[in-house]
Amino acid sequence: MTRLLKFEAVNAYYGRAHVLHDVSLHVEAGERVALVGRNGVGKTTVVNTILNLASLRGGTMQFNGRAQQGLRTYTAARAGIAVVPQGRRIIANLTIEENLLLGGAVKRPGPWNLASIYELFPILRERAHTPGTALSGGQQQMLAIGRAMMANPSLLVLDEPSEGLAPVIVDQLAVIFNRLADAGTALLLIEQNLSLITRVARRLYVMAKGSIIEEGALEGLDIEQLHKHIVV
């Protein structure tokens, strides 16, 4: 398998604050990986390190076998990494369709376009010309996912996608994420919802205090032990 994303002994900072400590992880092409841990342990800083919003001052980050430095959201998408950020960040003064077209601005070739996104999320087609922020929370999450997929990424990074959503919507997200993975997109799922993790991921990393403290396959995992790493 092709190793898409690789962190090797990464140390990352915000100013003088040292947040990631010798973090090593990887995601293979087409793989479904979860990164779990309690609030404040550094999970989102992994995303911010990918996007150069946190400063990498030790170790290496590679994507598709190439060392990466200085990526931003646009250049990451052009390289094949799309991020669904925590909080969704729907652009308020754009319609649903305009938000989606913004995601496709990098014009990477692939199967995802307006037609295929509307097939995946019919509600977005029905309300295509209404403001993105007029949607419910679950629908906004669908828009954020659709916007990311418009870039036809090799790797989709999902930062707390179930946050604030009803269980029935989380169930829908699990189906959607598995469908995207089945179509060939690798997933890095940063999450605390055990139900979503166990239904989507095949392998996971556990973080605590900015470090990876455990990793392995989900199959046969002690769920009660995992629960202790997530619940405060």
UniProtKB/TrEMBL annotation:
Keyword annotations of the record: Amino-acid transport, ATP-binding, Cell membrane, Membrane, Nucleotide-binding, Transport
Pfam families named among the record's database cross-references: ABC_tran
Family annotation (InterPro entries): AAA+_ATPase, ABC_transporter-like_ATP-bd, ABC_transporter-like_CS, BCAA_Transport_ATP-bd_LivF, P-loop_NTPase
Keyword Cell wall biogenesis/degradation: no
Cited Gene3D superfamilies: P-loop containing nucleotide triphosphate hydrolases
Domain ABC transporter: 5-232
GO MF annotations, alphabetized: ATP binding
Membrane-spanning intervals of the chain: none
Similarity comment text for this entry: Belongs to the ABC transporter superfamily.
Protein name: ATP-binding cassette domain-containing protein
Species in which this protein is naturally found: Aromatoleum toluolicum
